[in-house]
């Protein structure tokens, strides 16, 4: 007999939402264990640097989670309300609103409160466990093993299902032995190195393109954040989460072009110093920030894993590479997936069938709710990475129509309706290249969305579907990369 019905590996946000979701859908009738490598006093911490994150999340995602599993977020885990996100072009002349209303979260406080809620629901925790492997019975995952860092003794627990929420570089996923469908390792080019500070500051020059207490600001700029973007997210009138993300190969090209040797840490410092709206900045020493006020981490910027289940095993959150490809936002998709997965887990266990085929519906449910748009956003991200600052500024100013802004505001790929305007004159060879590439990615996105809506209803159709996806997306990515040469 198994020790637990479900083991959730990883005690971060995706892990605890998943545990709460399973508890909700089972009416607290299943025995659930959450295993965390951190101490009870620093739950869900990503690394020694803390819970490195932009801390922002859309109200829509929080409401989705709350409506599905009846978990309400309030103060103090919600630190500040925002009206939306504004993305600025490199020349600051054009801004695009997206994501709608949202919240700035306190990522040190949130896991403490999440764990308290979980325990009230009867969910158990094991802390300071270093997981190394899954346990198998033929083609089924039946548990986890590792080392208990408190006692230095082997740790082993069995369950009917293991949900992997251990993060982007998951050891469990990397070593998965019972599936050829689940992708094990991520391409280095699909990772962004991110870093940020949580700071108090004195108000400098009033400039709403640099700091706005009501809006999260994103700066697209290939000189300051090559292959990524900078962000200035308000946590109050004089408190901010400020940081940036870069992709290594684009950082290397930028350094070569400018004759510099910058890394994420030096770029963060430069980005902070050049912000004229923020002066006399200092790291927050508030008790709820003290273990989390600066740090660097990695985040995926691609579509979710092509398959997120195998026999007795499921992926959620960063382990499934769910952060949005265009902005690396991981909290929203983790809330959506966590709220969905509980129903899939409970149905499989109550049906006494935790095979790959029985868990397959989770792939379909996530795609229907969120995952249908992610491959198109991956392609759009790859295109923006290839563009110069001048091209980005020109494209944002001239090629985005109202419908495109609406699409972006919903986190979807724009159609670039502005390109179809009768009599539109596009000046310059480079800008014609931009127009051509935007139109191309839009066409490919339409195909990709349709392909995801035709995701196979059971495992038997997966190999053909996946082969077609990789062929089409691979060709599109190669073509997009050629636009930058």
TrEMBL record:
Keywords for the protein's UniProt record, in alphabetical order: FAD, Flavoprotein, Lipid biosynthesis, Lipid metabolism, Oxidoreductase, Phospholipid biosynthesis, Phospholipid metabolism
Residue ranges constituting the Digeranylgeranylglycerophospholipid reductase catalytic domain according to the UniProt record: 209-255
MF annotations from Gene Ontology: oxidoreductase activity
Key word Zinc-finger present: no
Pfam families: GGR_cat (PF22578)
Entry keyword Coiled coil: no
Swiss-Prot/TrEMBL GO biological process terms: phospholipid biosynthetic process
Coiled coil: none
PANTHER family in UniProt: DIGERANYLGERANYLGLYCEROPHOSPHOLIPID REDUCTASE, GERANYLGERANYL DIPHOSPHATE REDUCTASE
Protein name: NAD(P)/FAD-dependent oxidoreductase
Organism listed in the record: Marine Group I thaumarchaeote
């Amino acid at each position: 007999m198994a020790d637990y019905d479900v083991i959730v590996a990883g005690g971060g946000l995706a892990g605890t939402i998943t545990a709460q979701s399973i508890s909700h859908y089972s009416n607290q009738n299943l025995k659930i264990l959450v295993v965390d490598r951190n101490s009870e006093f620093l739950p869900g911490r990503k690394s020694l640097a803390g819970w490195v994150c932009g801390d922002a999340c859309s109200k829509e995602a929080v409401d989705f989670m709350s409506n599905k599993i009846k978990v309400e977020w309030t103060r103090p885990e919600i630190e500040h309300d925002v009206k939306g996100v504004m993305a600025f072009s490199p020349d600051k002349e054009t801004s695009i609103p997206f994501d709608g209303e949202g919240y700035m979260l306190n990522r040190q406080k949130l896991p403490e409160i999440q764990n308290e809620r979980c325990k009230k629901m009867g969910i158990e925790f094991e802390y300071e466990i270093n997981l190394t492997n899954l346990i198998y019975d033929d083609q089924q995952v039946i548990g986890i093993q590792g080392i208990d860092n408190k006692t230095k003794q082997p740790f082993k627990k069995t369950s009917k299902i293991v949900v992997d929420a251990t993060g982007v570089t998951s050891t469990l996923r990397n070593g998965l032995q019972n599936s050829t469908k689940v992708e094990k390792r991520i391409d280095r080019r699909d990772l962004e190195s991110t870093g940020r500070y949580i700071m108090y500051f004195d108000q400098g020059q009033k400039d709403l393109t640099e700091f706005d207490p009501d809006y999260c600001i994103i700066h697209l700029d290939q000189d300051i954040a090559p292959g990524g973007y900078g962000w200035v997210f308000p946590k109050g009138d004089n408190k901010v989460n400020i940081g940036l993300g870069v992709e290594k190969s684009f950082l290397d090209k930028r350094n070569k072009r400018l004759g510099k040797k910058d890394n994420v840490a030096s770029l963060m410092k430069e980005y902070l110093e050049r912000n004229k709206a923020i002066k006399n900045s200092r790291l927050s020493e508030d008790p709820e920030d003290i273990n989390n006020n600066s740090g660097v981490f990695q985040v995926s910027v691609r579509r979710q894993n092509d398959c997120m289940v195998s026999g007795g095993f499921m992926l959620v959150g960063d382990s499934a590479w769910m952060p949005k490809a265009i902005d690396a936002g991981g909290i929203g998709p983790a809330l959506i997936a966590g709220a969905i997965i509980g129903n899939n887990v409970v149905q499989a266990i109550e049906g006494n069938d935790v095979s790959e085929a029985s868990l397959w519906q989770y792939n379909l449910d996530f795609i229907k709710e969120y995952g249908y748009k992610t491959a198109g956003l991956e392609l759009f991200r790859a295109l923006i990475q290839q563009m110069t600052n001048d091209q980005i500024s020109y494209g944002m100013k001239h090629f985005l129509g109202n419908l495109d802004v609406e699409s972006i505001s919903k986190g979807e790929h724009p159609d670039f309706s502005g390109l179809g305007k009768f009599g539109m004159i596009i000046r310059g060879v480079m800008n014609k290249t931009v127009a051509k590439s935007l139109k191309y990615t839009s066409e490919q996105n339409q195909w990709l969305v349709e392909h995801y809506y035709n995701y196979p209803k059971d495992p038997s159709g997966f190999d053909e579907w996946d082969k077609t996806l990789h062929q089409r997306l691979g060709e599109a990515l190669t073509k997009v990369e050629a636009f930058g040469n």
